[in-house]
């Protein structure tokens, strides 16, 4: 679950777009299940509980970015018989500091899972550590069902330069393996790469600015995106879109 601002609707002189949408993305199916607009002058965190009630999450794992990392939302997911993987950032200041301190001595040990890949002119190494024993993380007591802390350290090489970043996660999954947790963490970025990014580059979504059009057309773009991604033709989405416009048989 994640939010997106339609940047083309940002009023002159302001930083926040007037149209913001929170949507739920099914990672394996590459399908947008639902979306809800964020009320004016409110944050994505307010809309997330509303979106959650529209989706059957029983037996699933729900991942949320830092704005959705709230004890109340974690509790609601457990009530709905779902598990969670939540991004932990410094907006949860005390918990973040304690989790960071918990992993400090673990990072000199071998990771529980490691993955390397190359492509698009860059190389990337991802290493994952997890902890299911954290008695000194006092702030964890406020989090319903918290069973596992996760640290993912990413090193990226591009154009002869290396950058390194560490990210932390909270999870209610007590039995999941390191590779499964790595998959959930990696899968969360599917909503960025396959849903948020594609309308921008394939349909120039940020060029849509006025009245109700941005929100309405965002819904139509997601429907079209789902259909194009279901087709197994080996070509870019932009080429598929053009072929649909020119070839009625391909359209059908």
TrEMBL record:
Name of a matching Pfam family: DDE_Tnp_1
Transmembrane segments: none
Protein's recorded name: Transposase IS4-like domain-containing protein
The species this protein was found in: Hymenobacter coccineus
Biological process terms in GO annotation: DNA transposition
Any one GO MF annotation of this record: DNA binding
Domain Transposase IS4-like: 7-199
InterPro entries the UniProt entry points to: ISAs1_transpos, Transposase_11, Transposase_11-like
Domain of life: Bacteria
């Amino acid at each position: 679950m994640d939010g997106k601002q339609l940047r083309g609707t940002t009023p002159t002189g302001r930083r926040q777009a007037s149209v913001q949408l929170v949507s739920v993305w099914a990672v394996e199916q590459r399908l947008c299940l639902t979306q809800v607009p964020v009320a004016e002058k409110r944050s994505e965190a307010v809309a997330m509980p509303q979106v959650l009630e529209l989706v059957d999450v029983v037996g699933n794992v729900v991942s949320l970015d830092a704005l959705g990392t709230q004890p109340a939302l974690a509790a609601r997911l457990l009530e709905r018989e779902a598990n969670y993987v939540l991004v932990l950032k410094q907006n949860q200041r005390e918990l973040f500091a304690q989790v960071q301190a918990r992993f400090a001595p673990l990072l000199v040990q071998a990771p529980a899972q490691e993955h390397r890949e190359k492509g698009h002119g860059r190389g990337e190494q991802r290493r994952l550590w997890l902890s299911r024993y954290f008695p000194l993380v006092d702030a964890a007591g406020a989090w319903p069902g918290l069973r596992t802390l996760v640290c993912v350290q990413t090193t990226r090489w591009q154009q002869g330069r290396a950058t390194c970043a560490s990210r932390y996660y909270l999870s209610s999954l007590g039995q999941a393996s390191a590779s499964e947790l790595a998959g959930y963490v990696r899968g969360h970025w599917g909503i960025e790469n396959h849903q948020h990014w594609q309308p921008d580059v394939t349909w120039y979504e940020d060029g849509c600015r006025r009245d109700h059009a941005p929100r309405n057309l965002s819904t139509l773009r997601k429907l079209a995106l789902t259909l194009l991604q279901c087709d197994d033709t080996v070509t870019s989405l932009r080429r598929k879109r053009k072929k649909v416009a020119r070839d009625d048989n391909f359209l059908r």
